[in-house]
Structure formats: C-alpha cells, structure tokens
C-alpha cells in the first residue's frame, strides 16, 4: 500500500467481510458491521480533535485504530488514508510549526472528510 494513487483504492470492497462470513458466520459479520458503523465515526471525530489540538501521538493512535477497523470492514481507501495520516503523525514533532508534514496531514484529513460518508454508506448496504 501507499505507492498507488488514493483513487485506485475502492471505497468499499466486500471481500474481507465475505471471507469472514465463510470462516466464522454471517451473524459475526453483521455484528462487526454494526459496531464499525457506530465506532468509525466516533473514532474519526477523535482523530479530528487530536488534529485540532496538534496532539500527534493521539492522532497517530486514532489513525492506527481507524486503519485497522477500515481494513477489517472492507474500506480500503479509508484504510490507506489512515495509514498515510498515521505516518504523518509519526513524523511530526509535537513542538513543530506548520511543516510540510503538517500540510500533508491537513490534505489527507480533508480527503478523508470527503470519503468517510460514502464509504460508511457503502458499508451500511453490505448484505453479506
């Protein structure tokens, strides 16, 4: 991940959920989807709050958490954006001024804002 343009990552790919339904059961997948639809927006709000506060360690933690949740639920573009945000947050020093890394993080967060709702809408429509 990371060398492809973000547009090459699908908003939603049901393959991870389909595989989980085969490996475990559809009830578990339904529960995972319901939890993700509840938790991803909350975690995203926490990520934005850490961004506003320039709390880079918290931003890293929230991006990492969102990356895993998005990947598990078949949201590859969100997962890739969170991977990149996680990387930016890891590179940024807490006392730094507006840097190239910070500008990149701002750009990525703006892009995430544009895809979060369509991605969650696609996930909500998953029928297994």
CATH class: Mainly Alpha
Beta-strand share of residues? under 5%
Find the structural class using helix and strand composition: mainly alpha
**CATH topology assignment:** Four Helix Bundle (Hemerythrin (Met), subunit A)
Largest sheet data: none
Write a brief structural summary:
The chain is mainly α and 128 residues long. The chain has 5 helices and no strands.
Would you write up a description of this structure?
This protein has helices at 15-23, 26-52, 56-72, 76-91, 100-124. By secondary structure, the protein is an all-alpha fold. The protein has one domain (11-124): Up-down Bundle (Four Helix Bundle (Hemerythrin (Met), subunit A)). Helix 2 (26-52) packs antiparallel against helix 5.
Describe this protein with a few key phrases.
5 helices, single chain, elongated, Four Helix Bundle (Hemerythrin (Met), subunit A), mainly alpha
List the helices and strands and how they pair.
Blueprint: H1 15-23, H2 26-52, H3 56-72, H4 76-91, H5 100-124
Helix pairs in contact: 1-2, 2-3, 2-5, 3-4, 4-5
